[in-house]
């Protein structure tokens, strides 16, 4: 299939890059989190609170398994590579781009965001260690890694396109 998946930690710029890529390449755009929120009629913190994280992870996998659209851009949630089944599915159905941003920048962008339940319930040290522990899975899943430091949105999308 002809999809482009954007993966990476929270706050690395997947949505911004995805939207721009979609515009440049004239391909439909899906934001996984937004699709889940729409489908459930609840915010992500509400889903976590009411049904728990595992349930949210199941929704992510279901989204990937059920998506019919072939030619499209998908920005994923930062935890999507936690499951091997998701890693495999993405690699088999498209090109996977990892947006690799430095933790300092990530933290600056996410630490006040009330819409990210994992950030809300954790300390900076915990988030930094989560970032470290997920890094290998991002690298392993991606076909291409794009380092975002010192690059503008335009440079990142041009590189990806
Ligand atoms: C999560 C990242 C979020 C969202 C949820 C869980 C994670 O997506 O899916 O809050 O586990 O890293 P973004 O990466 O778009 O913030």
Quickly count the helices.
9
- Enter the CATH topology name: Rossmann fold
Computed Rg: 15 Å
Number of domains: 1
Q: Please give the number of β-strands.
A: 5
Q: What characterizes the major β-sheet?
A: 5 strands, parallel
Give the cofactors and ligands: shikimate-3-phosphate
Relative strand content:
5-15%
> How does CATH name the architecture?
3-Layer(aba) Sandwich
Task: Give the terminus-to-terminus CA distance.
Answer: 17 Å
Mean pLDDT: 96
Shape: globular
Molecular structure report:
Substrate binds at residues 33, 57, 78, 134. The protein has 161 residues and is an alpha/beta fold. The protein has helices at residues 14-25, 32-40, 44-51, 53-66, 84-93, 103-110, 117-120, 124-141, 153-160; strands at 3-7, 29-31, 73-75, 94-100, 144-147. A five-stranded parallel β-sheet has the order 2-3-1-4-5, sandwiched between helices. Helix 3 (44-51) crosses helix 4 and helix 4 (53-66) runs parallel beside helix 5. The two termini are 17 Å apart. The structure holds shikimate-3-phosphate (S3P).
């Amino acid at each position: 299939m002809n999809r482009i998946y954007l993966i990476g930690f929270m706050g690395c710029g997947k949505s911004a890059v995805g939207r721009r890529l979609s515009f440049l390449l004239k391909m439909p755009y899906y934001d996984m989190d937004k699709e889940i929120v729409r489908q459930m009629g609840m915010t992500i913190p509400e889903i976590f609170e009411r049904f728990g994280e595992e349930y949210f992870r199941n929704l992510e996998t279901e989204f990937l398994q059920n998506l019919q659209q072939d030619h499209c851009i998908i920005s994923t949630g930062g935890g999507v590579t936690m499951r091997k089944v998701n890693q495999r599915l993405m690699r088999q159905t498209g090109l996977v781009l990892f947006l690799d941003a430095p933790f300092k920048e990530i933290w600056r962008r996410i630490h006040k965001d009330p819409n990210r339940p994992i950030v809300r319930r954790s300390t900076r040290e915990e988030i930094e260690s989560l970032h470290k522990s997920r890094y290998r899975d991002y690298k392993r899943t991606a076909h291409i890694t794009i380092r975002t430091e010192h690059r503008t949105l335009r440079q990142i999308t041009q590189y990806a396109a």
